[in-house]
Write a structure and sequence with these properties.
Elements (H helix, E strand, L loop, with lengths): L1 E5 L2 E3 L5 E8 L7 E7 L6 E7 L4 E3 L7 E6 L4 E6 L8 E10 L4 E5 L3 E5 L2
């Protein structure tokens, strides 16, 4: 299974970006799809996820500014980010998990860089 992110780039403070993640290589539904981020010198942190069935969860910093949306049939996950600030600069990673009868399989994308700067 592969997760491929796209949509990162350079944006000015106050601007917006939309990140996309596309999964391929499996027809098994994802139990959830999520976004994480990692800034230089910091640990990877949770941004948002959406569970199979629709429930969404956001980190406090993302609440009200970021919106996650997933398409279970197309196996995609988008992250709409608004009012971006320099502190949002990081590599953003797509994450997904599939349940099997024996275990839960987790997958990560390669990441996409988001830089917020004037």
């Amino acid at each position: 299974v592969q997760l491929v992110e796209s949509g990162g780039g350079l944006v000015q403070p106050g601007g917006s970006l939309r990140l996309s993640c596309a999964a391929s290589g499996s027809s098994r539904p994802f139990y959830y799809m999520a976004w994480y981020r990692q800034a230089p010198g910091k640990q990877r942190e949770f941004v948002a996820n959406q569970l199979l069935g629709g429930r969404v969860n956001y980190a406090d910093f993302a609440e009200g500014r970021f919106t996650i949306s997933t398409n279970e049939a197309r196996m995609t996950a988008d992250l709409e980010m608004t009012n971006l600030q320099p502190g949002d600069s990081a590599v953003y990673y797509c994450n997904g998990a599939q349940k099997t009868p024996l275990t839960t399989l987790q997958y990560w994308g390669q990441g996409t860089q988001v830089t917020v700067s004037s």
